[in-house]
Backbone:
């Protein structure tokens, strides 16, 4: 399915129970809010409890794909953006 069709955080690829709970605690309570927030801002909301791997998982979740499917350009961009905090 396309990631845009998913509404529950737990149904997004790569979002496990701990990450879901942390996102909810940060006010990101559903998939649409995560999409609007964006992966980097959402990751900073749960950092430092979650590593850079979780940032990749969040980006992949927003796209509705496995994090293995993220290309190198995306991975490098996310790494740069995460370093800005």
Residues:
């Amino acid at each position: 399915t396309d990631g845009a069709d998913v509404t529950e955080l737990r149904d997004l690829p790569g979002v496990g129970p701990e990450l879901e709970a942390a996102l909810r605690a940060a006010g990101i309570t559903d998939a649409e809010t995560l999409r609007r927030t964006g992966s980097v801002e959402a990751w900073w909301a749960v950092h430092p409890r979650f590593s850079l791997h979780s940032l990749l998982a969040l980006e992949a979740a927003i796209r509705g794909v496995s994090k293995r499917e993220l290309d190198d350009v995306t991975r490098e961009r996310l790494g740069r953006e995460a370093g800005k905090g």
